[in-house]
Design brief:
- The complex is a heterodimer of chains A (192) and B (901).
- With 192 residues, chain A is mainly beta.
- Chain A has 2 helices and 12 strands; from the N terminus they run H-H-E-E-E-E-E-E-E-E-E-E-E-E.
- Chain A has a 4-stranded antiparallel sheet, with no helix packed on it. A 3-stranded antiparallel sheet of chain A has the order 3-12-11, with helices on one face.
- In chain A, a hairpin with an 8-residue loop joins strand 8 and strand 9.
- Chain B is an alpha/beta fold and 901 residues long.
- Chain B is built from 28 helices and 28 strands.
- In chain B, strands 5, 6, 7, 8, 14, 15, 16 and 19 form an 8-stranded mixed sheet that branches. In chain B, strands 23-27-24-26-25-28 form a 6-stranded mixed barrel.
- In chain B, helix 3 packs parallel to helix 20.
- Classes of the chains: A mainly beta (192), B alpha/beta (901).
- Chains A and B meet through helix 1, strand 2, strand 8 and strand 10 of A and helix 5, helix 6 and helix 26 of B.
Amino acid sequence: MKKDRSQQTTKEHSDCMISRRKFLLYSSATVAATSVISLNLFPGTAQAKEMKAQVTAYPRIKIAQMSQLKENQPFDFQYPDKGPNSQAMIVKTGVKCGGGIGQGQDIVSFSYICTHQGGPLIGQYKVVDEHRVLGQCPFHLSTFDMRRHGIIVSGQAYESLPQVLLEVEGDDIYAVGIMGLLFGRTDNKLAG
Amino acid sequence: MTTNYYIPEDSSLLPPKDAEVITTACDYCVVACGYNVYRWPLHKPSGGIKADQNAFGINFPSYALQEWVAPAQHNVVMHEGQPYNVVIVPDKKTKAVNLNGDSSMRGGLIAQKVYNPATGTRDRLTSPLMRIGGTLQPVSWEFAIEIAAAVGRHVIDTHGENAYGVKTYSYQYIENTYAITKYALRHVNTANFSFHDTPSDVTSTPGFRDAGFDNFGPSYEDWGKADVLMLCGTDPYETKTILFTQFMMPAIQRGMKTIILNPRETAGIAYMKKHGGLHLDVNPGSDNLVLGAILRVIVENNWQDQEWIDEWVNNKWESSSGFGQGTRNTPWQWRTTWGKFQTDGYEDYKKWLLAQPEYSVKNAAKVAAIDPDKIYQAAQMLAKPNADGSRKKASIAIEKGFYWSNNTGNTNAISSLATVIGAGGRPGRVVGRLGGHQRGGQSGGKLPRNKSPEKVPGRRRRALDTDRWTYSGHTRFAHVIGTTWIQSMSGSQGLLKKFWELTSANPHQVFSYDKQEIIDTLKARADSGGMVVINQDIYLRDPIGAKFADIVFPAASWGEEDFMRANGERRLRLYQKFNDAPGDAKPDWWIISQLAKKMGYDGFDWQNSNEVAEEAARFSRGGRKDFNMVKVAAHAEGKTLHQKMREFGTNGIQGPVFYNYDTKTLHGTERLHDTELAKNKEKLKEMGLENGAQGANVLTKKLTHFNSQTGKVNLQKHPWNLFSDFHEWLSPKEEELWFSNGRINEIWQSGFDDIERRAYTAQRWPENWVEIHPEDAKKRGIESGDQVMMYSDRVAAFKDTLLGIDSQNFQFGELLKRGHIELSKAAVTAVAIVTPAVKVGVLYANMLDMRQPSNSLTARVVDNISGNYNFKMGVAKIKKIGESKYKHEYRSFSFAPRNIV
């Protein structure tokens, strides 16, 4: 299942960053638990570089149904467990998003906990023209771009907002992993 | 660990219980948040998630506002030659600045700053380099220093001190700035000297200086104590982030009102508006008129703070004692001679103000392109007395968008506004700059201004403009320290071309292995009218290092040496060494000391940075960050200055610092111009100042009064016509738009090492960008994500060094008429961001992308009076040249507006 990327151009690689999702999926298929895999980024360019990516195996949990998602109405859930800082949301944005699923690639899912100091982003989903933003965080006003893998728009956070990786099976949507570390944790999966 | 490509990690390390804890502060913006460095050997286990297993003493997962280690806050460094883990996080227990361990994105990622060849820092300079055969090649320190000194000595002896130019940062630690200025000003004694953000060694805020205001008088606490806070030319959330979130934001939530002058609406401004803030989205360069109009409304309604004015404003006789600045022979004298600013006190000022037709509300609103009602509203908010006759407490903060638009005129006007409404010297009623870089300047010498060949009308010499001097070919040896010089000055593409002519295009180039032959070649270059360039920096900068430098010295900086520095409330702290500098890199003070000794200067035998700091201490006396008494206390306790500073940890101590000989305690200064402190006998007793200064303490009037001869404020005129001809000439014609530029939160004051090297940062801001209003964009067929060309064929550049005779000689219109202004073409590309957050008719670009420098398009014309550039003033046309890769991908950049609340 692991794709041969040795011939891939930077552009192709960028295009397929719909994709960090796939990136993880390719990886997790080859390993059973936390392990380290090798990836070659920017092959064939001056920036070509072997790097290690650490990947944790996550639970596969059904979180929502396609047919029940209404445009721009976030649906809340917890992932990967019911422990601290696991609050997350899934939303059908109506616009194509990085890592989006569904026909319009417009369904994305993110942690609700700001990566700056753990502020709650619940109720902060904003629609402005073609933009979809989570924030301002009530603590220190960070905003995150939900179309671009949760990258900071403006503010203080030093990590993107963790994006929950999704899979579809019929009408069911499953959470299958997280890109990035949830605030407050040292590992997304709680020990013990 | 971060790579050039941002892929978020999903785990991080905790420091173990026995990790060493080393205090420091962030290296970047003026706020300087306190940080802890946790260090433990690579071979030792990391901390566990239970409270008794980690250095924080809390259980993980942690909760909101508790400690947490983001993956990017860990790194691996070398310490005494051995690998160590470091975790660098904001100090949750600090009692100053970043209370609760708040941090910006810049500081939050500072662990990524340290040298680790597995990361984007791999291109740190690690060895001295010499250009031989066109290529910069590693050489020994001895070899490089000997050549630099021989050529430098020759240039001074043959062409005079002013042929030796020093262009340096003003802020990168007290030890370094002291060494650099001692060398350049006291020993080389050149007038060809300027700091990174101005072409000549002059004050940044002439109006403040002449009024008697210190730039950094207030404490951070003060900014949250007003009833109404006016902010000019800055969004303090966008820059000064933690000052906003920790001090202003809570006050705004409690009801503090805000008035903001800024052509652009960013996150903080949007937040303030949501909480009743008034946004005056003025056109670039029109602030002076708007302030004049606000003042006129106040004065006409008799809303001035008469009690304050009666007690604290210089009257006719007080003003005449050298413009309130002392006897005739002062740096201010030439301004008095002109009579353009001086008033005889409030009534005289009022008369002048009401006689200036340009300050009518109608005119000001028209030029600024704002709703005239906002001017009336602002006047009411600031000065209209409450129903019971009491006054609102008003404070005023300014920064670069404001004072780099009409440097003299704007700072004069804001000083007058502050004084008329009673701001300046009481808690909750303060005036100051919010700041840019940290305050690490400590002068070890004085600019020999009388050696400057430039003279302004009247009798006074003007600090040499190093850009024009160099442009005319008079700089034969350029010593550049920690600045790009070229891109950071205005009209930079013209400057670059001249650098190329003087260096690369000169026939005398080094192709030899022989030291003497190299020296002779470089001497011949200087003698032939060319220029030799030596450059100290942490990375190789293009073009100053990469293309033009003959010798490059690798510098050691933050975390690689013990250093002292102050922040924007004069808070001094020790920034501790916690890892080895890469390769042969050395701190700038050491590089200077080696060069100075070879040049034959004495007084450079320092063994470590503490020795430099202790020598610098006595030169800080009487200054705003006077730390001499910390040294006195340290020595009394058998400690060094740095050891004593270390005890203050992340809390630090605010300068000027006083020592109470009775209680043997050190006391910082909360605010300058503290007119209420003078009445507080108890506090003065505690500080040991009850009966004036004891022992070695130096007590200056600025502690309880203003910086003028009388200790009162000079109420100044702020004539628009010193600037109006330039403003009119520059105003957009035909297809042109205003072209302004500025900072952005995520890369503010950190662009010198994060934008190209930190994956997350590079992902967010991968290249130059420009904001354009949807209306302007639509007319030009531009969409977000398009690649655009910004260009102009009328970039004005003032090119000559002059002897002014007639009082109009330095006026822009006059310079233009007499052929001292050259018009040239420039072009810069960027990625367009279409957003209503920027004003119609205004382009707003990143202030400095070293690869696509905005300053190419700004006028290289200094402020008529002060000699500073008005960096925010330019015009440009803009057109689409294609689509950037960011338009259709989702990995990097973001086109979402910053003003979503």
